[in-house]
Amino acid sequence: MSRRVKTTETSFKIVELLKKFNGATMNELSDQLELANSTVHGHLKTLEENQLLVKEGDKYHLSLQFFYYGNYARQRKPEYRYAEDHVENLVSMTKEGANFAVEEHGRITILYGNSIPNDPTYDVGGNYSMHDTASGKAILAEMSDEEVSSVIDQWGLSERTEHTITNEEDLFDELETIRRQGYALNHDELMPGLSAVAVVVERPDSSIAGALSVGGPTYRVASTRLEDEFLEALQQVKAEFEDDVRSLYRPS
């Protein structure tokens, strides 16, 4: 069993609360955490002295140091540098929302995204479960059954809409369909009225760099558009993206 450090966990809970409430006072944090003011004060001062928090009036907020770390993480792997151009290409081709998402810790995070008109589900930094998104299911389909079961054990199959897959057997059936057809679909599963199609982007060694997705309002992107017009655009951009990634591994 791993050894967990309670003080570190408390600091991260403070970070989460400051994000959730868009800033908070020491007393508000103490109430939320059910800890003494003196304990919370120690965490706040430590975080502030390490430039992770700023104090404005009597409220603490997350500092732009998180932006610095996030920008580093976003560009840490060399293939990610190509993602933005390919996402923008998809948006230009389809006039709908597109993103590139990667998996970490059993969830997906959007590294690059854009939509016309603006849709918050394509915002950079968005973090989502995998079973109810096209990108997530596309990546899950590349995992072994044991890896998929591990993700389910960790995060469950929460119901976001009446169309969300919440049964493990149904999810495995859909993943088999995705493996056979080579792409994943999301029809009103993440939120009502939103549909998307996604394909994975592979490295030369067949490992998964992430997933490209394009979609929009269900009334505007019916299944025929997703699996015809949009899928054709996705496959073209996927091939271009993977060619760029291969260039990173070619001998100089």
From TrEMBL:
The HTH iclR-type domain, residue ranges: 5-64
PROSITE patterns, alphabetized: HTH_ICLR (PS51077), ICLR_ED (PS51078)
UniProt keywords, alphabetically: DNA-binding, Plasmid, Transcription, Transcription regulation
Leader peptide range in chain numbering: none
GO MF terms, alphabetically ordered: DNA binding; DNA-binding transcription factor activity
IclR-ED domain boundaries: 65-247
Chain segments annotated as coiled-coil in the UniProt record: none
Name this polypeptide is given: IclR family transcriptional regulator
Organism: Natronosalvus rutilus
